[in-house]
Amino acid sequence: MRCSENKRSFSGKLKPTWCKGCTYFIFQKVLNGLLQRLNYDPLSTVFVSGIGCSSRISLYTSAFGMHTIHGRAIPVATGIRLSRSDVSVLVIAGDGDLFSIGAGHFVHAARKNIDITVFCLNNMTYAMTKNQSSPTSGFDHAGSFTPAGNQTLPLNTVEFAICCKSSFVARSTTFTPDHLEKTIIRALKHRGFSFVDIVAPCRTFNPEYFPSEKQISIVDVNETMQFDMKDYSSALQCASRCIFPSRESPAVLPVGTFFEA
Ligand code: SF4
Predict the structure, then answer these.
(1) For the segment 22-53, what is each residue's pLDDT rounded down to a tens digit?
(2) C-beta atoms surrounding 214 within 10 Å
(3) Distance (Å) from CA 118 to ligand 1 centroid
(4) Which of 6, 97, 106, 186 is the most exposed place for a label (fewest CB within 10 A)?
(5) At the topology level of CATH, where does 24-260 sit?
């Protein structure tokens, strides 16, 4: 919901405890700046998060913040939405939170098209507990429980979100703040369940596994692939080819809007 008065800052009083250089600082700066510029009112906005490094963002905002329990950000956000149609409800959580313990909640909120915006800060590991492989870790990811390499292929979050009948599905990354900003704007404008996978690598536990911005090739599917984002089958087919990190091409990151009903 928008303010009627002057634009208000979304920066909170607490200083983030994220590691120096953490990519979440980029997301936070982009999101806070955008909400302020779009004249959102912190007193009519709720950040709902689960548990993990990314989920601490709900402590660092001047908006209402609910730092809930592991995997349960979506049901809490659903409850807020059902009881308060007048507030903006943003879920901000990690890949482990949303797609492991919280995956069942994701499915049902998406298929019921609950009007919330879900941002997955996808760092491809359980960072807070010191680097166990998560649902989105790449094949061969050397986590603390899988030192010889994770032997499971990563979940393709955008494909999963489309299969669950999310009405808006996109992927962006902290590598490209401008693209991230445009994608967030589209997700915020969408009425219904909107999901944005934000690739934001962990700088502490995977500094070598994930390449730097200079080494990664970011491909915008809206410019490079022929598909109809309004058509479910076409979007699903496109998304199924856009897994990240892929075993064959780990340094190619496909971003863009995949589906919008
Ligand atoms: S452990 Fe990784 S994800 Fe967590 S705050 Fe540090 S850099 Fe960020």
Answers:
(1) 999 999 999 999 999 999 999 999 999 999 99
(2) 6
(3) 20
(4) 6
(5) Rossmann fold (3.40.50)
